Structures are given as C-alpha cells and as structure tokens.
C-alpha cells in the first residue's frame, strides 16, 4: 500500500522525475496542466532517462518511446492529483519523519546511506532531489490511504468465512491430543437441572483456568466415555474426532481449555494437551493491580510519590491491604472500585513505563513508586498465564488479507474517479492544446 516502501529501484525512478525542484532550464516548458499545477518537459525527460538506465541495468526491454512517454505522463498526472489531495488534507511530511522513512528503507534494502548516495549519483540523481521526491511519494501515499480507508467496509461474516478457509488449509494433517469432561443432562431434565449442569460446567472451567488438574476433575465429574482414563482421548486428526469436538477445536493450540459448550447429551469441556503439525500463537497475560495518584496544582510530584511510598510501606507492614489502599487513594476509578485490580491483559496495552514495570516485576512484589503520563503508580503483579491466541491470529490474518484486497481495488477506483473529476490539459506546443475536462 505504501509505494515508498516497495523498492529502491522504484524510488530512484520517481526521484529522477523531480527535476521541477531544480532551477528550470531556459528550454523547459509546460507539457500538462493538472488542475492548478503543471508537469514540465524536464519532469518527463528526467523520468524517461532514469527508467532507461534502470531497464538497462536489469536487462529489461522497454516499449517504443512514444508509448513509454505516455506511461510517464500518466504516472506524473496521478502523482500530481494525489499531492493536491494531500494539500487539501493538510498533510505535511517534516524532515524527522522523512529521515525515519529513509532509514527504514535503508534497513529493508540492507544498505548504508553512503551506498545509497553513491548509487543515486551513478544514475545522475542528487540526494537532495531524491529526498524531496520521496517526501512527495510519502505525501501522496498518506493522502491515498486516508481516502481509500473510508471506502472499505469489512463485515464480520467475511472475516469468519475466510478464517474458516485458512483454518481448513492449516489443519490438514494436524493431530490433537485431547481430554474431555462431559456433564450429563438427562433428556427429561427440567430447567433447574439443566441450569445446575451448566453452572457446574462453568465452575469446572474456572477451576481449570486456575490450574486444576484436568484428569482429577474428569475422574470426579465426567460422565463421558473416557472418564476412567482421566478424560484423555489420545491423538486424533480432526476428521477422526466426534463432530462436537471438531466443530469447537478449530485452530486452538496446545493448552487451550474449550467450553463449556452444549450438545444434546449435556455440557462439554475439552483440553488440548498437545498438538502436532500446527503452528500456534501463545501470549503471556498479566493480572496486575495498581494505585494511581495524580499530580495537580496543589499536589506536586514529590507529594504524590511520598503518598504512594507511605501506602506501600503500610501494605508491606500489614497495616493495610492493597485493596483497601486502592479504594481509599487511587485516582483510577475503574480499578479502585475493584481493589486496584486491572484484570488479565497482555502488557503491551499499557503505556511504556507501566508495561516495562509489569514485565519486570516478580509475582507478588509491589513496585516502588514510578511515574507515567497518567501520574504516579505502585503496581503489583498478581499472576501470569500463557494464553492461546491462535484463533485470534488467524482471524487477524483473514482481516488483513481482506483489507489488502479491498484496499487495492478501492485505490484503483478512487484514482480513476480523481482523474475523471480533474481538469487536465495536454499542451501541444506546435499546434495548440488538447484538453481533458471532466
């Protein structure tokens, strides 16, 4: 989607077309008017020269000059229209952002700045000219992205359908070692009995997520066919499983607890003990709690820090619980009402200072006061767990595929509409002008 990231070759081609940034020669002339901007003959000549140099370098055959010239003109027209859109949006690429983009490009191309400058010079392109054309290219790309994103609509059903297709491809040949607990519901059970069975299943899932042994619970509670084997079914491919298993497993990875889910004979819980042949995605979640004290015109940094130090010492001494201190002191109303608890999250959802702290802390340790953009904190990591995110990763991949498809389609449609609505005048310097008015 971002043309400036695609290749150094492309950037060099565009870079040479930027001769309009240099002082125009005496023989320079306007070739095309695009709304309120112009394309000069020097722009076309420079791009033609660089296209030919790069084609020779790669042993590529080019079309006849008149065809190639028309291609170059069209490319410059489309760029001019996108730059005009960027100006309307107020998009400006400053030197810092430009430098970052160049460094990113150099890293991708595994080149040094000196090597880039040398290669540009060999093609007759100054580094200053290259920088300014890259700035234009990034500007045009951002304008295109803003407009095209507004046109894209991806429905959840589309994501689910494509994710199912990707899962079907990924799961060919995959084997699962699974264990199963069945909470039976008799056919003539009344609503109260069904509700009790559902609640029992939910309670077991909660215990399993808190580290309970699956086999022990299966021996005690399961009415399934493998109850006396601790619920273990052994290794199976998805097509060999009971349908209710296969429908629920999807792309879950090793360690996943699935359920409870309902069938005609009761409620079921599955654990994936191990997987062969499936690439899984696992993340570490942290359960933390904190106390936040904000600074103000009457509460300095030192005062906020001192207040938290006193609260920390009181908690460590056993004079006050963390929950009570959070409820009394914390300026984060959402967590304060829950004893400071933030729930289970991956650390990357937090601001950098908080993220670094929860990643470094050992379980059960209360940090020294530290500062973030929100104020001063103390934090305690209550627990950590590894969570399977394979299914979410597949859905994310499906979304990205759909977005890329639709972006490319909509980008072409938008550019066509942009061109159709523009005033474009091709100047014939010998016999007058050829207008394109929309």
Automatic annotation (TrEMBL):
GO molecular function, one term: unfolded protein binding
Protein localization: Periplasm
Catalysed reaction equations from the record: [protein]-peptidylproline (omega=180) = [protein]-peptidylproline (omega=0)
Primary subcellular site in the record, as a coarse category: periplasm
EC primary class: isomerase
Annotated keywords: Chaperone, Isomerase, Periplasm, Repeat, Rotamase, Signal
Signal peptide boundaries: 1-22
Protein name: Chaperone SurA
Organism from which the protein derives: Photobacterium swingsii
Recorded name of the encoding gene: surA
